[in-house]
Amino acid sequence: MSMSHAGRAALGGMQYGKGGHSLKPGTIRRSWSFISRYRARLIIYLTVSALGAVLTVVSPILAGDVVNAIVDGSDVGVVIRLALLIAAVAVVEAILDVISRWQSASLGERTIFDLRTTVFTHVQTMPIAFFTRARTGALVSRLNNDVIGAQTAIARTLPTVVMNVVTLAVTLVVMLTTSWQITLVSLVLLPVFLFPARSLGSRLAVLTRERAKRNATMGDQMTERFSAPGATLVKLFGEQQHESEIFAARADSVRSSGVQISVWTSVFMTILTMVSALALAAVYGIGGYQALTGGLNAGDVVTMALLLTRLYAPLTGLATARVELMSALVSFERIFEVLDLKPMITDPEDPQAIPAGGVRIEFEDVNFEYPAASEVSLASLEEVAVLDDRSSGQVLHGINFTVDPGQTVALVGSSGAGKSTIASLVSRLYDVTGGSIKLNGVDLREAKAVDIHDRVGMVTQDSHLFHASIRDNLTLGHRAVDDVHIWEILQHARLTEVVGAMPDGLDTIVGERGYRLSGGERQRLAIARLLIAAPEAVILDEATASLDATNEAAVQQALDKALEARTALVIAHRLSTIVKADEILVVEDGRIAERGTHQELLAAGQRYAELYATQFE
Predict the structure, then answer these.
(1) Phi and psi at residue 508, in whole multiples of 5°?
(2) How far apart are CA 444 and CA 418, in angstroms?
(3) Which residues are registered as beta bridge partners of 412?
(4) Average pLDDT for residues 419-434, to the nearest whole number?
(5) What is residue 290's three-state secondary structure?
């Protein structure tokens, strides 16, 4: 390894440097748990790296022997044999280098795979409250930048330390036995490089860390503004120029930090080159003097000059190893920070099966308040200094009602009264903080999540679609459904003609969040998805609130099909859609203010009658 290469490697390892950061206890042990899964491969890797380190010292010795053979006028065969031996060493070094890189890539990529899949799987267990607070870009960064930073510990830092220690030990032994005077002078010059190198390394770590933050901020803006809803909002309010100015300012800060990093890197490399030149001058000066006075031969001078690069390179690498190792460990720590977030909703150790048959939903004295940010999130994922530990206050107060199998119960009331919260609790997106919700007599907290979702389906006002094909969006959770059944369901959802007219039929990509479809088409696809899942209970959260009259009629026909012989809990903004409900609950301020049929509530002349009159006047 040349000195220049060592310097650049050292600088590269500072990319995620966290100077002065104090690691949490247990970080090293937990990091090792990921690496130790591939202990045999790691041993092979370190062994090959150590052998390669030994061979780097052999070539300079052989080169000195060639010079001595030439000066002494030895037989040509001796020189040829030495040259062939140098070539053989080079070939073996190349083979070992390939094996080392192969093992390095394998270990690094396996670790990336393990970390990414572990974090991804864990994040999916987090409650909805977590996703409503965390920045998507920050989560993605944990799965990308931090995982790659953690890979550095396995793929480069650890084997580099081993290789540098072996190289340094062997090189010092050979240099001291060849000329202890030159060796001492070379070591005396070392602080001239190491002290400024450590200072520059810390400065570069800070600059690079700041540049990464600025890049992340710029990336967040692009991610949000380039989405379909974000771009629409910018255009509707004519904010293009303002957004461009903000982006330009952020891009300029990235440019500025890039210039500073480039300048300080150049200073770093210049100092390294200067010290290298001074050390070589010392070797040639002292070595030449000793060769002329008989203390050394010419071959030894050449050997010492070549070994000098093998001395400074590992010393430089070891001097910066702490920065590199801390960088990797902090990346591990940031990953563990996410993994240490405990899911608020988990399956019980001994789950109860929900009895078969039609679903009966029971709310028994249910109270609820949303969790505080400190319970479900991380400050680093929200871009705040400290998480808010205040609770939302009680949202639901003593909710009691029952929806019998095949019955339809509607929830109406003012915006923010708690209707959608009730719907979320039935699907166990949150857990109640008081009382209980039961399906066929089984408390939701005693049942497996998959059983709940198999029995209870939900259509929201803004039904989300993935950037995937119509088929993939329709068969979520039921991938084995054949096309014949899908087309049958599309007929029920009044979508046969719409999908049939699309260029690729069921394979048509709907775009991000389904923006290539109209609002009514998206809602009907969501209903079709529900019909394919065929749950016994259905929750409709204002499924027609944002549609025009034509689309509402089409969606309502699809909903009628979805509700056939099913238990239904319907949240309605338009009261005309729920006049036939078996029971209507009027929710106000988290309490059930009224209950009864449409006619009974109109006759009572209270809040429901007021809402009905307001809409139909």
Answers:
(1) -65, 130
(2) 19
(3) 586
(4) 91
(5) helix
3-state SS assignment for residue 397 = strand
Query: Comparing C-alpha atoms, which of 534, 532, 533, 514 is closest to residue 523?
Result: 514
End-to-end CA distance of the chain: 84
Angle between the 158-178 and 298-339 helix axes, to the nearest 10 degrees?
160
Q: What is the mean pLDDT of residues 513-519?
A: 78
Residue 457 has pLDDT above 80, yes or no: yes
DSSP secondary structure of 137-200:
HHHHHIIIIIHHHHHHIIIIIHHHHHHHHHHHHHHHHHHHHH-HHHHHHHHHHHHHHHHHHHHH
Rounded distance between C-alpha atoms, residue 154 and residue 72, angstroms: 48
Question: What is the residue whose two structure tokens read 């100092």?
Answer: 271
Segment 155-172, tens digit of pLDDT: 667 667 777 888 888 888
* % pLDDT > 70, the chain: 86
Question: How does strand 537-541 pair with strand 456-459?
Answer: parallel
Q: For the chain, list the domains and their CATH numbers.
A: 3-339 (1.20.1560.10), 361-616 (3.40.50.300)
Give the integer Cα–Cα distance in Å for 578 and 111: 54
pLDDT at 3: 46
**HEC profile of 351-379:** CCCCCCCCCCEEEEEEEEECCCHHHHCCH
- In the chain, % of residues over pLDDT 90: 15
Q: Please answer whether residues 357 and 440 qualify as being in contact, where contact means their C-beta atoms are separated by less than 8 angstroms.
A: yes
- What are the b/e assignments for 540-558, b being 16+ CB within 10 Å? bbbbbeebeeebbebbbeb
**DSSP string for 401-426:** EEE-TT-EEEEEESTTSSHHHHHHHH
Handedness of CA 480, 483, 488, 491 (dihedral sign): positive
- Give the per-residue pLDDT at 586: 94
| pLDDT score of 205 | 65
Interior angle at CA 524, CA 575 and CA 362, nearest 5:
55
Residue entry with tokens 């009044």: 494
Average pLDDT score over residue span 280-286: 80
Q: What is the dihedral of CA 79, 80, 85, 86, to 10 degrees?
A: 70
The predicted pLDDT at position 14 comes to 41
- Sheet hosting strand 567-571, strand order edge to edge: 456-459, 537-541, 567-571, 408-413, 583-588, 591-596
Give me the numbers of helices (H) and strands (E) for the chain, helices first please: 23, 10
CA-based nearest residue to 339, from 156, 147, 129, 128: 147
Residue 560, both tokens:
């009628």
Contact criterion met (CB below 8 Å) for 201 and 327: no
DSSP state letter for 511: -
Are 384 and 374 in contact, with CB atoms under 8 Å apart? no
In whole angstroms, give the CA distance from residue 220 to residue 203.
Answer: 26
Q: Which two tokens stand for residue 36?
A: 């130790």
Averaged pLDDT, 44-72: 82
Kindly list the strands in the beta sheet with 394-403, ordered across the sheet, starting from the edge strand earlier in the chain.
394-403, 361-369, 434-439, 442-443
Structure tokens given for 455: 């029995």
